[in-house]
């Protein structure tokens, strides 16, 4: 089945620790995205990548880093500089084009700080 | 900031039509209207999108007013599984950025 997978489903981070969230897609999509969602809120864009080896900051990139070495993978690292990392993290992908493509989302990773 | 305004919550009876409104009075001529929904603790799911004309697919219908300043998402026969938060988004190109507001929390009652 084609789709987007995120792992792990739940992740616990200790103070001062970096953690990496995985996102893989087999949809052959060029573009990938990372969003953060806080309770009762909408999604906010962290980083996006429209092509391999290239990515741009979204609205709330501080304290996060990404890489895009392969088309199908877009891992997100939550660094110790992110002071309030507890949130639901969602990865998405799309095939850019004429403005009518849609984003497909993974099931999400819930990050909790111990 | 989100470019759309939606009611915070709505409810409807199972089997009846659910009509979810959205105001987007500042929409520009080349911006599409997208609808996504998010069932609790899951990733958002694309429902439908449109530019000017009304659209229908297997999930829903989208009615866009002639002046494009508002739209309505219609779920023709709501089921309990349609209980979710519904997001109305305007975007020139969904491959760049989707700005999610707080959405409408739809509760389908048995």
What does this structure look like?
- The complex is a heterodimer of chains A (114) and B (110).
- By secondary structure, chain A is mainly beta.
- Chain A has strands spanning 4-7, 10-13, 19-25, 31-37, 43-51, 54-57, 64-66, 76-78, 87-94, 104-105, 109-113.
- In chain A, the strands form two sheets. In chain A, strands 2, 4, 5, 6, 9, 10 and 11 form a seven-stranded mixed sheet that branches. A four-stranded antiparallel sheet of chain A has the order 1-3-8-7, with no helix packed on it.
- In chain A, 36% of the residues are buried.
- The model of chain A has no long low-confidence stretch (mean pLDDT 91).
- In chain B, the strands form two sheets. In chain B, strands 1-9-8-3-4 form a five-stranded mixed sheet, with no helix packed on it. A four-stranded antiparallel sheet of chain B has the order 2-7-6-5, with no helix packed on it.
- Chain B starts with 8 loop residues before the first strand and ends with a strand.
- In chain B, 35% of the residues are buried.
- The chains are: A mainly beta (114), B mainly beta (110).
- Chain A binds chain B through residues 4, 31, 35, 40-45, 48, 50, 58, 88, 90, 92, 94-97, 99-108, 110, and chain B through 2, 30, 32, 34, 41-46, 49, 87, 91-103.
Distinctive features:
heterodimer; A: 114 residues; mainly beta; 4-stranded antiparallel sheet; globular; B: 110 residues; 5-stranded mixed sheet
Mean pLDDT of chain B: 91
Shape of chain A: globular
Low-confidence sequence ranges of chain B: none
The major beta sheet of chain A can be summarized as:
7 strands, mixed
List the helices and strands and how they pair.
The complex is a heterodimer of chains A (114) and B (110).
Chain A: E1 4-7, E2 10-13, E3 19-25, E4 31-37, E5 43-51, E6 54-57, E7 64-66, E8 76-78, E9 87-94, E10 104-105, E11 109-113
Parallel strand pairs in A: 2-11
Antiparallel strand pairs in A: 1-3, 3-8, 4-5, 4-9, 5-6, 7-8, 9-10, 9-11
Chain B: E1 9-13, E2 18-23, E3 32-38, E4 45-50, E5 55-56, E6 61-64, E7 70-75, E8 84-91, E9 104-109
Parallel strand pairs in B: 1-9
Antiparallel strand pairs in B: 2-7, 3-4, 3-8, 5-6, 6-7, 8-9
